[in-house]
Amino acid sequence: NAGVTQTPKFRVLKTGQSMTLLCAQDMNHEYMYWYRQDPGMGLRLIHYSVGEGTTAKGEVPDGYNVSRLKKQNFLLGLESAAPSQTSVYFCASLGDNYEQYFGPGTRLTVT
Amino acid sequence: RKEVEQDPGPFNVPEGATVAFNCTYSNSASQSFFWYRQDCRKEPKLLMSVYSSGNEDGRFTAQLNRASQYISLLIRDSKLSDSATYLCVVPDDKIIFGKGTRLHILP
Lengths: 111, 107
Fold this sequence. Notes:
The complex is a heterodimer. By secondary structure, chain A is an all-beta fold. Chain A has no helices and 11 strands. In chain A, β7 and β8 form a beta hairpin. Chain B has a 5-stranded antiparallel beta sheet, with no helix packed on it. Chain B contains no helices and 10 strands. Chain B is 0% helix and 50% strand. By secondary structure, chain B is mostly beta strands. The interface between A and B is medium-sized, with 25 and 21 residues.
């Protein structure tokens, strides 16, 4: 099992550009999550999904959109990137005992 | 009151010492509790689950105090490799993390 994978690992965007971050899991988990983590800060929940075709807002959803068209994939989109979105983005899925499995993260810089 | 609160530290502890830190939570109906460890610039990884009877794994002990709504993590005989940020999680649909407690083990 690959577990949770994230693509890309690194990205530099200019202000106003758009991009999509891909999260994939091969554990057949229903729940998936997107977090961002800024230096010296904890994880903040952006959006989450409780199953294929469903999404919901987390703590800091503004400026992001998500889609869960397939159970194994959870996409995070930035339509018009801003410097405030410079961060490390982590995706996670939820196991049967409520334990989370995290991807390795995507480091995004917006200039 | 925030859903999950932790003392951010840092806790600077000499190698070999015992260290403990707590995490308070607001949802009295919560049934599951977890401690995660996060190394610098890495993803969080599950350290321990915390159930009603507590949990012990080697040098690590996690306990739950329902009356006061907090969980604790105790690390005995601390090692340099224990230096990390420790995150507590009290899951519901959203899975909100505490901000973490930074631990530095000093040689």
